[in-house]
Automatic annotation (TrEMBL):
UniProt cross-references to InterPro entries, sorted A to Z: AAA+_ATPase (IPR003593), AAA_lid_NorR (IPR058031), CheY-like_superfamily (IPR011006), Homeodomain-like_sf (IPR009057), P-loop_NTPase (IPR027417), Sig_transdc_resp-reg_receiver (IPR001789), Sigma_54_int (IPR002078), Sigma_54_int_dom_ATP-bd_1 (IPR025662)
Domain Sigma-54 factor interaction: 142-371
Sorted UniProt keywords: ATP-binding, DNA-binding, Nucleotide-binding, Phosphoprotein, Transcription, Transcription regulation, Two-component regulatory system
Name this protein carries in UniProt: DNA-binding NtrC family response regulator
Superkingdom of origin organism: Bacteria
SMART domains, per the entry: AAA, REC
Ranges in a coiled coil: none
Database matches in Pfam families: AAA_lid_14 (PF25601), Response_reg (PF00072), Sigma54_activat (PF00158)
Organism: Roseimicrobium gellanilyticum
Length: 465
């Protein structure tokens, strides 16, 4: 681990946790100070600021979240790794929105904690301190809580302060443009323009003009001088979306512009120089494109300086509850309508779907459901795909003995339905309606559920016997 002399402060009211974390970090050569409360930490002498703070949420007196807000008002900003036994989605959201570097739950994985501390120290040393505006921009634009999301945020925070070329790869709808905007927001070029070029939408004969501009009279229709996208992005960031769509015969000119930061307008001999940071994105496998002779190898290696992969939504199911809540609130504001209610059953339905269109499809589904909900409960009508359909049972042989039954009798179905309903009612304390009630968990209307309870003759006294 780097940063051998770095100071890490551990704040936790559980002495066994403090000692465990201290031993783990000291074994890696780090200096460690431990405190039993937020007040004890704030009372420490004003000396060397810690390179990282490992912080519990539930503390006596001032809570971990309150301490985080207190520290965020001062400079330099201290990267915080939350380590708590009281983790839930809403708490994680609050912590990360306030700028937390990581949020881990107890019992913690030692390797995961060490990685989080190391990454925070590296970010502080090489990536600079994140300002309040930077942390706010990240949390408000890129939403998630899972491991893939945390890795993405770390990569963005590391590469954004540099001028290195970034290659963003991911399926359609995963949010590659959002990542490009985030990199620009957190860079030293944020006061200048972010110029986006959709390479897939440019006619082949206009690529040069679009990238580099043209002089008056350079071709039919060129009635005046025109600045290209490279010049428009001078001092800022040029985002080339769908870079894999650029025709092979034009890729050499793009390579020269990227390498030398100079070019000529179409129909002009004067060489122009620009200062731009280049970020590119693609949903193609560029290595396969190179192997197939459709993409220049030298251009690929010029672009592949800092690759960032954006995971598909099906691999980020733990992020779906937070994304759904984010889109519900955002769409309600955009549509100026009453915010509909997102139920636990609805979230489970969203997590069960495989999302071929990724986050873009999720937003569209929630927008449609918001329109139909009219301020009430959101209901999601998602297609059932072949991948989701349960496998059909194998045909039963006439001679097969002790085989599993193909079907259940009506009494068996009723018994299982009754047992399932009793389990849900016990779980909710016989709360039928409202948030986290039995009707919400089962995905049915409260009136329908009450009717079923009466029909089955269930009673609370029966459940307690």
């Amino acid at each position: 681990m780097k940063n051998v002399d770095a100071l890490v402060c551990v704040v936790d009211d559980d002495v066994s946790i403090r000692e465990s974390v201290r031993g783990l970090l000291r074994a890696e050569g780090l200096r460690v100070e431990t405190y039993g409360s937020a007040d004890d930490f704030l009372a420490r002498s004003r000396g060397e600021p810690p390179g990282c703070l490992v912080l519990d949420v539930e503390l006596p007196g001032l809570s971990g979240l309150q301490l985080q807000r207190e520290l965020f008002r001062s400079e330099p900003h201290i990267p915080i790794v939350f380590l708590t036994g009281h983790g839930d989605i809403s708490m994680s959201v609050r912590a990360i929105k306030a700028g937390a570097f990581e949020f881990l739950t107890k019992p913690f994985d030692p390797e995961e904690l060490l990685d989080a501390v190391q990454e925070s120290l590296l970010t502080r040393e090489y990536g600079g301190h994140r300002s309040k505006d930077q942390a706010s921009a990240q949390s408000n634009e890129i939403v998630g809580i899972g491991g893939a999301h945390r890795t993405l945020i770390k990569q963005i925070s590391m590469v954004a302060p540099t001028d290195s070329t970034v290659l963003i790869q991911g399926e359609t709808g995963t949010g590659k443009e959002l990542v490009a905007r985030e990199i620009h927001k957190l860079s030293r070029r944020k006061e200048h323009a972010l110029v986006r070029v959709n390479c897939a939408s440019i006619p082949k004969e206009l690529y040069e003009s679009e990238f580099f501009g043209h002089a008056r009279g350079a071709f039919t229709g060129a009635i005046k001088d025109r600045m290209g996208r490279f010049e428009a992005a001078h001092g800022g960031t040029l985002f080339l979306d769908e870079i894999g769509e650029i025709p092979l015969e034009l890729q050499s000119k793009l390579l020269r512009a990227l390498q030398e930061k100079q070019f000529e307008r179409v129909g002009e001999e004067r060489t122009r120089r620009v200062d731009v940071r280049v970020v590119v994105a693609t949903n193609r496998d560029l290595k396969a494109e190179v192997a197939g002779g459709r993409f220049r190898e030298d251009l690929y290696y010029r672009l592949d300086v800092f690759p960032v992969r954006v995971s598909p939504l099906r691999d980020r199911r733990e992020d779906i509850p937070m994304l759904a809540k984010y889109f519900v609130e955002l769409l309600a504001k955009e549509m100026k309508c009453t915010k509909p209610r997102l139920t636990e059953a609805g979230v489970i339905r969203l997590q069960e779907y495989h999302w071929p269109g990724n986050i873009r499809e999720l937003r569209n589904v929630i927008e449609r459901a918001t329109i139909l909900a009219r301020g009430k409960v959101l209901e999601f009508d998602l297609p059932t795909t072949t991948a989701e359909a349960p496998a059909l049972p194998a045909p039963r042989s006439m001679n097969q003995e002790k085989a599993e039954p193909e079907f259940m009798t009506e009494p068996e179905i009723q018994r299982r339905e009754r047992e399932n309903l009793r389990i849900v009612l016990n779980k909710t304390g016989w709360k039928v309606g409202g948030p986290s009630g039995a009707a919400e968990l089962l995905g049915v209307k409260p009136t329908t559920l009450i009717s079923r309870i009466k029909k089955m003759g269930l009673s609370r006294n029966e459940a307690t016997q």
